[in-house]
Every structure is written in C-alpha cells, then in structure tokens.
Amino acid sequence: MKTKISCLMICFNNQQTINQSIDSILNQHFKDFELLIIDNASADDTPQKLKSIDDERVKIIYNEETRDRSDLINKWLLDNKSKYVCFSEPDMTYTKDRLLRQFEYMESAPRVGASGTQLIFPNIAQASFDFLWKSNFKKYIKVVLLHHNPFSFSTMIFRRSLLMKYGLLFDSTFKNLSFYNFMDEASQCFSISLLEGDSASPVLGRKKLGESVPSGDLNDLKRKQIGRILEKYTIREWEAYLKLYDGSVMADHELNIACDFINNIICANQKQRVYPRGTLYKFFRSQLISAAARQFNSLNGITRSQLINLLIRKFSYTSYLEIGTSNPTQNFDLVQCPNKTAVDPEPLREDIIGLTSDAFFENLPAEKKFDLIFIDGLHHADQVTRDIDNAIMHLAKNGSIVCHDMLPETEEMQMVPRISARWMGDCWKSWAHYRMHKTDLQMVVVDSDCGLGIIRRGQQELFPAEDHVDYAFFERNRTKLMNVISVTDFSKLLEDESTVHVL
Hints:
alpha/beta, 18 helices, 16 strands
C-alpha cells in the first residue's frame, strides 16, 4: 500500500547516533510513512544496530561497497510512489510533530513544491523566522541562493510529482554541493517555504558539523547560476565576480570590472526575468557596498588580527580566547599569543573546541581568566550580550574584550534573520545596551574592518537610554552611540604610555 510520505536515511559509520535518530522518526505523531535506511558499507557496528529494528514501516538495504550518495538518492526518488519524500540524517533527532506539521502544510499549499524547518543547535539562540513566513520570502529565495544555501537537507520535504515533472535529481558532479545545486534548481521550478519553528537537532556525539567545500565545485555552481542570465563574459570579469562573492579585498580595477559585470547581469535579467529584478538589484548593491568598504579599510584601516596583536603587544598579554572560529585561517591563526583557545559549534579542526559559547562558558571554571577575548560568534544581539557578560566574568585584570561587526553599512546587512549576502547581524544593539547602562566599562569602536569594538574595565559617560532602537536610530547616532574613533586616534592611544587605562 502506498504511503503518504517516504523518508530516506543514508548512514555510514553512525553507530553512536543511529538509534536515537531512528527512534525519533518512528515516534512521529504522523503514522502514514515508510522509512528506507541504506547502510552505505559501514565499517563499525552500525549494521548490527540496524538489525535490531523491528518495525514494518522500516526497510533496510545493506551495501557491500560504498556508493555515491547522489546516486542512492536518485534511485530512491525514481522508484518511489509516495506523494511526499523527505530526507533524514542518522546523526539528527526530530521533533515528534515534524512530519505532521510538514504534511498538513503541504496539503494546504498545493502550489508549494518543498518546505523545510529550522535546524536547531543546542544552546544557540535562534532568530524568529516570522519574516520567512511572509510571501516575499518566495521572491527572496532565488536571490539568496546566489550567495548561500539557507536550507538544511535533514529538514526538507518535497512534493514528489513536481520533482518528477521537472526532472529534478541530484547531480553528483557537484559533490559536496549537490544539495545546494538541487535546491537552486528547485527554486527555479516551484515555490519553497520555510515553516516556523524547529524540527531537528544534532545528536550529541555526532561527527564534526563543518564540511569543507572544494573551490572547484563552488566555481562550477556559480557559473551555472550566472549562466542562466548571462552566457558570455571574460575571465577577468569572472575572477572579479568571485572576489566579490568570497569577500576578498579588491583593487580599484577589479572593483570597476565587477561593477561593469554586475551591471551587465542586471540588464540581462531585466529582459529575461530569471530573478526578481528589484531583489537582484538590492543583493548586488549590498555586495558592491561591502566590497568598497573592505577596500577602504585595507587602505586606511587595520584588520581584526592586526588590532588584536597590537593589544597583545601593548599589554604583554599571554592568553587569548576566540568565540566563533568558523574559519581559523581568517583570524585565529594570525593571532600572536602564547596560549590560544578557539571555540565554535562547527569546528573545522581538532584544536578548536566544538561547543557553543553558552556551553563553553557554562563548563568553564570560575577562576579561569583570559587576557584578551575576541567575540565573533552568533551575530544576534541577545547572544552577543550573553557572550560579553560571560567574557567580563572571565576577563583577567587589565584584560580586553574585542567585538567584531559593530558598524553595519546598510540596513539589510544587520537584519535578523539574514537576507543579505554580506551580513553582520544586529550585534550593534548589544553594544548600544552596554553604552546606555554600564558605567563601569570603557568602550570604543575603531572604524575599521566592519567595526572593531574594544571593552575594558573603567568608567564611561552613558549614552541616553532608549527603550526602542532600530537602524534609523543607529544611523542618526552612530558616532556617539557606539563611541566610534578613527584608526589614527586608536594608534595615538596605543602610542601614548599614559593611556593604558583609557583603552
């Protein structure tokens, strides 16, 4: 008998998490589903754990050799007869109402081809997804996918008839980016929604969440996306576009080339209307503004790493803590301090502590202190406030806290949830809170590298308190509210031996 929903789970060496994940699926409130589990030639005890499952809704296939993941998914999609298909991961657990909520939503919205929910990481503050409920999300999503994939594979459900109608399958040539490519293709064919609330979270003990993406795969995907609008362009134009995309500092001639290339893309899209015209314009405008700001900072400013190292040398610091090390090569590896600690919930290396900042500080002994703490974690104001509070408690005498991304350049850049390619979140709101309410701190923001906030113990004159602050308020009061100083003024403070307690 054909079921309403068919779920697929592909596992490989998941002995630590597989039972919890399967139990969370079998205990769903929605009962009319089947679960196909493919063990992709695991070398641990995963097959033995699977053999203990006794449920008529579960079918298990044991591969003798490891097969390509995309090929396994495609065969399942083509052989399937269910109305809806969904993906599940062997290292995730699911809320009991996941399938019911998604089924009821898809039944009520026949024009929607796919829907997903939030993926919740324990102890990480979540922004409201009310914005994504609005109809304009369908307008935004195509453009958002030009920059990144906001969807989680393990929370998606698809209307199978539409996948077959448009011939949507996973392309193994994109390797790690096959799901990104799949969602990008799907967005061109039908509407996609994100449901409010969470449905999945990682099982404790799962493998590292970080996944490296080969640059060649990303380059191919980007070419495919732009190729929908513009077929012909030069190598120089493409190299400039990639620099614009990855956040590199661009020379004048590169920025000019990128501007011309973007203008060609926007003009071509005016005729073809592959992407919503106004949204595409705002997207590229935000990218160009950010590129110009990065160029200005590189010529007239200092980077976060340079500022941190200057403070380390100024005060002879010996211990350093970094909160939010998504890519250690961008800052952590450049910091010159004898004892360094990095924390990130999605660690890319063994030397990075794989915890959220909340969990890290909760388990940190009260007597443990750091000379300098750099905060660059989840860019939501409530989380930044918790990180600063915890940092102050673990700050050594004469220590310093440095906060990144305190000076957003556009309103879109600071919106939560994220809608822009270049994003700083609303960290500035947390900074504003301390400027309005904490007299026992000294706070300045150096106008460089997206705004580098420095906090030290001391005294400050408070900014007049306001109950409601928005971006318009930030723009009107930027300099005084944030206590912004120039790089030149910061350098003078460093050079003046009498200002040890001013910084």
